[in-house]
Design brief:
mainly alpha; 73% helix
């Protein structure tokens, strides 16, 4: 199934590029700063959150720069949040196109995840600027980061397939997911130290795939260490399993989209 989708994506690569290009142009249309917002937004968000949590709530990390800790979590979670939200509405939002010409429907959630992926790569620039300015340091371990990014992409694609399929039949999903993503934000250790979580509740947090991906990235960026084997395994399993589940659900329901959109 994965090989079939990969072949179809290659076959429709021109269309995929056009969809990504369209989204990119629409997002920055009539914007004075344009692409610079992709660099400024995470910095401004981090600044506000750092001000609130480090000053008002006195959040801190022992022997770790809190700004780097916060930024690594934000970069990962913001990608997932934005990409999954856009993928959810990708099929419904492109019904006029689907109704006119034949094309593989799963190309729409894929295009959204890739489009947000461009912004994700741009947000790595301010992340590394903060890493450099805070003296956190860059080591050879950073060459392992693409593994976490690939797992993040697979997991997000899987969720995108599921959400885009479900939202066709249940439009309430657009509102429900807003609540879910808010809860998900607090269930992912972005702004707080995971050490404050009572041991009896840790299994709940460990069921969150983003917990393992964020941990993988922080082990490398902050602690300059190779993630343990179980972190590698959990990241890979979470990404692959959700991708396969998402593709199966999407494939089994896509022929019925025309009756509900």
């Amino acid at each position: 199934m994965i090989s079939k989708i990969t072949y179809t994506i290659k076959k429709y690569s021109f269309l995929l590029r056009q969809l990504v290009s369209r989204d990119f142009k629409v997002k920055y249309k009539r914007s004075v700063l344009g692409v610079l917002w992709s660099l400024l937004y995470p910095v401004l968000t981090m600044s506000v959150m750092a001000l609130v949590f480090s000053n008002m709530f006195k959040m801190s990390m022992p022997n770790v720069n809190y700004l780097v800790y916060l930024m690594t979590g934000l970069v990962i979670f913001n990608y997932f949040s934005e990409a999954s939200n856009l993928a959810m509405s990708s099929v419904v939002g492109n019904f006029s196109l689907i109704n006119k010409v034949y094309m593989p429907k799963y190309i729409f959630p894929v295009s959204k995840c890739l489009f947000v992926g461009i912004n994700f790569l741009l947000t790595l620039i301010p992340l590394y600027a903060i890493i450099f300015l805070t003296g956190t340091g860059i080591t050879w371990h950073h060459i392992l980061l693409p593994y976490a990014f690939i797992c993040l992409l697979m997991f997000t694609l899987g969720m995108g397939f599921i959400l885009s399929a479900v939202s066709v039949f249940l439009r309430d999903m657009f509102y429900i997911y807003g609540v879910v993503i808010t809860l998900w934000t607090y269930m992912t250790p972005i702004m707080y130290d995971v050490a404050i979580i009572p041991e009896k509740f840790m299994f709940i947090f460990k069921c969150n795939p983003l917990y393992w991906i964020v941990k993988f990235v922080r082990d490398i960026v902050i602690y300059h260490a190779v993630p343990t084997l179980n972190v590698w395994i959990y990241c890979g399993i979470c990404g692959l399993v959700f991708l396969v589940i998402g593709m199966v659900i999407f494939k089994k329901t896509q022929d019925k989209f025309i009756y509900y959109v």
